[in-house]
Amino acid sequence: MNEQPRPLYWLFLSLVGLVISIYVLFPVFWLFLASFKTEAELAQLPITFWPQAATLDAYTALFSDTHQKGQLLDWPQLIGNSFFVAISSTVLVLFFGTLAGYAFARLSFPGRDLILGGLLISRMFQGAALLLPTYRLMSMLGLQDSLIGLVLLYSAFGLPFATWIIASSLREIPKELEESAMIDGATRLQSMVKVVLPLATPALITASMWHFVGAWSEFAFASILLESNEHKTVTIGLASFVELFTLEFQYVGAAATIVALPIMLVFFFGQRYFTRGLLAGAVKG
Amino acid sequence: MLRSDRLLAYAMILPVVIAVLAFVVGPTYNVATLSLTQVVMGQERGFGTLGNFRALAADPVFGLVLQNTAIWILGGTLLCVTVGLGVGTFLAIDSRMTGWLRALILLPWVLPDVVTAMAWKWMLHGQVGIIGQTLESSGITEDTISFLGDPDLVMWMLVIVLIWRKMPLVALILCAAIRSVPDDQLEAARMDGANAVERFRFVTLPNIAFSLTAVTVISMIWITAEFALPWIMTGGGPANSSQIMATYIYQQSFEFFNWGVASAMSVVNLFMLASIVALYLYVNRRSWASEELK
Question: CA-CA distances (angstroms) from residue A144 to A137, A151, A165, B40, B188?
């Protein structure tokens, strides 16, 4: 691909690039703009692109008590719940994923490859077919309207991939480092925590970011399990605007911006780690 | 030493194994038994019947669901891979702009489904949606089209949104594959007088054939698992015209409490998934778990 930069070729590149950028960015940007418009402006035709009288009213409404009379959910609560579920399950996944990842990478035991393969394949079945039995299971355990239940579920869903990411990165760390630590009198757990894990930090970051994004964004299982308003998460809150049948898209825009923001931050600041996991994850479904 | 290592290993993987058994394998088994049980309003009344499957097959919506699911999975995969190949080929060009685009294009992939669904639901809105309005005001259509309200259009609209969401990763994987095609092979073909299209057809394509096959099968798995997008955008409507397996299962389970039919459909869905996964394992037979780890 060592083409000499010719004007026409350059023009072609830029044009296609521009079209792709607009295609990718427009839907997100459009909702973002809506969050600053007024209800009147959103209902009027022809459609305006930039907000004519930019206002933060939609955000204030989502965060104020006065607007919760059956119409809007309590957004500070939703955000708190989502952070609670995403962060707690990330911590669990990181802890147990590291333990298991270490075992799969470093110890040899009968059935190792088969079990790891089975764990990875289990990811592919986490779809709509499991909605009903999961609901039944959670009701049986008395966890159907509980954030703790959701934390356990998300952890179980996220563990196989985290384990795999961590295991593949641990395999690349030379065994000798650990062996010399153990010769110096460290136990296996000590050598794992002090010698191996610091070297695996990038994989641990990748695994956490991936899990956080997945848990924050999850909708289907949260929507069947969480019943009371004080337990709902942001994705449920955003989806609830569908039922309102209104043209108040400023709320949809503001809520969508709030839901997307943490993900965008993770994406832009952790690009390096994220892409790594993305390409690896792709290979494993 | 070795024995204790082995015990330690099992202890370390135990939580993960238990979690997957409890929340994936267990529920799979549970829904399979439920599908063979007569259920009346959430009450189990006797095991060992194919009644749920008969009821499912007798449901007038069933045929439509199968047809829509086929459009969703096959149409979605085909378009995802074709568009992804085009975009991936473009992204593989060396330039600062494509390098920047390679990062940007992942945005639709990381965005929560619910955000994507809301954004597109509004853009495709029959009265105030920007797509319909733009088409009308530029004179391409006479009236604004109700994209999600038209039974003939709605399924394809969902597929278009699906492409927006899933294509970027396909493009990126194929882009990586294209960039790893050996330069000397391309150079040799150029020397022999092959033009750009011939170089793509006879050098690039054979080199990325494996990635292309693998990504096609993986796309099928992703698309089969996708639920929030169609559910939030249309809820299966209007009049079931965009009902796919995933939305049907949800609706039967949690809106109609028709657990028998829902579990039967879940089992059908699991069988479909299992066959795609089998295809995936077959395609990837040379590079599965352990080898990949080394």
Answer: 8, 12, 30, 21, 63
Query: Angle at CA A271, nearest 5°, toward A16 and B158?
Result: 55
Degrees, nearest 5: CA angle B235-B237-B242: 90
3-state class of A226 per DSSP? Answer: coil
Nearest residue to B61 via CA among B266, B270, B237, B271? B237
Instruction: Name the residue of chain B whose CA is nearest to A247's CA.
Output: B128
- What backbone torsions phi and psi does residue B40 show, to the nearest 5 degrees? -120, 115
pLDDT for residue B291 is more than 60? no
Rounded Cα–Cα distance for residues B139 and B93 (Å)? 36
A278 pLDDT tier (thresholds 50, 70, 90): low
Q: Does A43 sit within 8 Å of B28, measured CB to CB?
A: no
pLDDT 10s digits, B222-278: 999 899 999 999 988 788 999 999 999 999 999 998 899 999 999 999 999 999 999
Q: Rounded CA gap, B229 and B115, in Å?
A: 9
What sign has the CA pseudo-torsion B96, B100, B103, B104? negative
* Min Cα separation B267/chain A (Å): 7
Of B19, B114, B293, nearest to A259 by CB-CB distance is: B114
What sign for the dihedral angle of Cα B245, B248, B250, B253?
A: negative
Single-letter residue type at A74: D
Contact A238 B120 (CB under 8 A): no
Per the structure block, which two tokens stand in for B82? 């074709």
For B25, the closest of A122, A131, A239 (CB atoms) is A122
What residues in A contact B277, CB-CB < 8 Å? Answer: 121, 124-125, 285
pLDDT in tens, B29-71: 999 999 998 877 667 777 878 889 998 999 999 999 999 999 9
User: Do residues A110 and A173 make contact, with C-beta atoms less than 8 angstroms apart?
Assistant: no
**A64 vs chain B: nearest CA distance in angstroms?**
22
Give the relative orientation of helices A112-123 and A147-170 as an angle to the nearest 10 degrees: 130
Residue B128: closest CA among chain A residues belongs to which residue?
A: A43
- Looking at residues A99-128, what average pLDDT do you find? 91
Interface test with B, best of A92, A98, A122, A125 (most B CBs within 10 A): A125
Q: Complex ipTM, two decimals?
A: 0.90
Q: Do B106 and A45 touch (CB under 8 A)?
A: no
Q: Which two tokens stand for residue B289?
A: 């778990």
Expressed in percent and rounded to 5, the helix, strand and coil fractions of chain A are 75, 0, 25
| Encoded tokens for B205 | 């394509």
Phi/psi of residue B46, nearest 5 degrees? 100, 130
Contact status of B120 with chain A (Cβ, < 8 Å): yes
